[in-house]
Amino acid sequence: MPNMETLQELLVHELQDLYNAENQIMKALPKMARRATSTPLREAFEAHLAQTEMQAQRLERALTLLDAPVRGRHCDGMQGIIDEGKKLMEEDANEDVMDAGLIAAAQKVEHYEIASYGSVKAWAELLGHEEVTALLQETLSEEESADRKLSQLADSEVNSEAAMGAGEDDSDEDTGESNDVDEDSEERATPARRQRSQAARSRRSGTQG
Ligand SMILES: [Fe+2]
User: What is the pLDDT of residue 157?
Assistant: First the structure.
């Protein structure tokens, strides 16, 4: 007999997968908030951390209502998305470009969650678990709203700053150094950008530590 014979068993399996995913996200979000330079972006990550804690609690409640063990099941999908985000955060990037990348990384997380919560909510509804359905719908709405908020931040501010940042830097950074580096303005600009990124990181850790 298969160990996943019923839709109810698949529902429990996926809820435990999501429970582990939410816990992985809880660990990743503070790191993303620290790496963000844009204040609205950092605040969006911090606000979503508080929501994520509630979402994990809703999953605990849902599993309890289904008489299933309240435990996680390692979510390889979320691990992969978060590992990619970690690699991005290790890059020595222009701070506006990093913010654009952080939004993309966070939206990958949101889209994974939207897909998963959409499925489990539909199964719970079909199986007549009204309270579980309501809990999952509440989280699904939060994930959709978090995704929209990230799109708004990208469209209204972050992407355009990332697009123009490097060009502006090159003209602003002309300090009248000798001409022998003119052929390679990229090499000249990159250390300057690095210094500014480091300064921004120090400022951030100063305000947060
Ligand atoms: Fe979530």
Answer: 85
Measure 155 CA to ligand 1 centroid, in angstroms: 22
Query: Looking at the domain assignment, is residue 80 inside a domain?
Result: yes
Q: Which domain holds residue 119?
A: 7-165
CA angle 76, 79, 83 (to 5 degrees): 140
Q: Is residue 62 within 8 Å of residue 121, measured between CB atoms?
A: no
Do the domain assignments include residue 27? Answer: yes
Tell me the percentage of the chain whose pLDDT exceeds 90: 73
Instruction: Flag whether pLDDT at 202 surpasses 70.
Output: no
pLDDT at 1: 67
Ligand 1 centroid to residue 200 C-alpha, Å: 29
Which CATH number do you get for residue 33? 1.20.1260.10
Q: Is the dihedral of CA 122, 128, 132, 137 positive or negative?
A: positive
Residue 200 lies in a domain: no
In a domain, 161, yes or no: yes
